[in-house]
Amino acid sequence: MAVRMLALVSDCYGIGGGIARYNQDLFEGLAASGADIVVLPRHGNLAGVALPRGIRQEPAIFSRLRYPLAALWLAWRKGPFDVVFCGHAYMAPIAWAVARLSRARYWLQTHGAEIWKTRPVLLRHAIEAADLVTTVSRGTRHSLLGWVDLPPDRVRVLPDTVQDKFVPGPVPEGLRERMALGAGPILLTVGRLSAGERYKGHEEVFAALPELRKRFPTLVHLVAGSGDDRAHMERRARELAGPDVVRFLGFVPEEELLDLYRLADLYVMPSTEEGFGIVYLEAAGCGLRVVGGIGGGSADAVPNEKVGVLVDPSDEAALIAAIVDQLGRGRVDPAAVEPYRRNHFTEAARRLLVRLVARGR
Questions:
Q1: Do domains 4-161+341-358 and 175-338 have the same CATH topology?
Q2: pTM
Q3: Domain 4-161+341-358 falls under CATH 3.40.190.10
Q4: Mean pLDDT computed over 250-263
Q5: 297-351 per-position pLDDT tens digit
Q6: Which fold is adopted by the domain 175-338?
């Protein structure tokens, strides 16, 4: 597939997070099909990062003022490009302008909150100008079509993908003892601790722990992740759950995260505003059942009882009942997440690109 793509993104290689991971999976899948991709990120540090064949990433442009100029210069200096890809809706006006000036097709990717809450006129026009819009979930697609004037067949769902390493496996010998976790059961939550993302449901889980400890006296809740809200969350955990019930682990590298998924007895994150919720499927891929929250795009990541259940986190009794029920159901069959594996994602992305390039400019 001899297609050249200029990708304007917030995050990609050299930085963590779900959007960065999504972009990496997408670009690697397209590059494996023969596409040539030039990435211009807002954030990230490439030091020590080996880029896959067919992908080149420019140095990050942190300045909001300089980024549009850098995108236009790159389109002129390293063009022509067949496709301008925009990895975040707030960058859509820039991508729209670059695509128009480059006479390229314009592909916009949306994730969730950025189009649920922010709807200025310029953003709407920039979205409606896209030749293709992909969303990570049916919930995001439904929300988007509710306020923009786009033909439904131009808005496609391209959900997150689960990397092949997220599979069941042995727990390292002595890990439970080194972490002083006791008999358990062990609840696990993985996610950024940000004051702007309290919708993930950490505090609702903390509030449910005293009642759960009556049934499971040695239950422990592990929280993996860092951010500006950690001090607040630690204080709320002590207030709501008591001392030593919640263990904050800070940032956990992916290699160690695999061990946590395999060690834990249940993944709990009753988030109400996830664009998709890839962590649910990472946990399920390792055999861990999940309790998620009603709202956003989580219904795509937790599609049926084979993986887990969704609850209203404001209903404490329902949350407690769901945790107790899921703890009693054993491990997940890894086949339940097979449709979200990378080979399926790559093929779906390739088909979308072929259709996009085949359309007239």
A1: yes
A2: 0.82
A3: no
A4: 90
A5: 677 767 667 889 999 999 999 999 999 999 999 898 888 888 888 889 999 999 9
A6: Rossmann fold (3.40.50)
Distances (CA, A) of 260 to 111, 127, 132, 265: 26, 39, 38, 10
**Residue with token string 């690697």:** 28
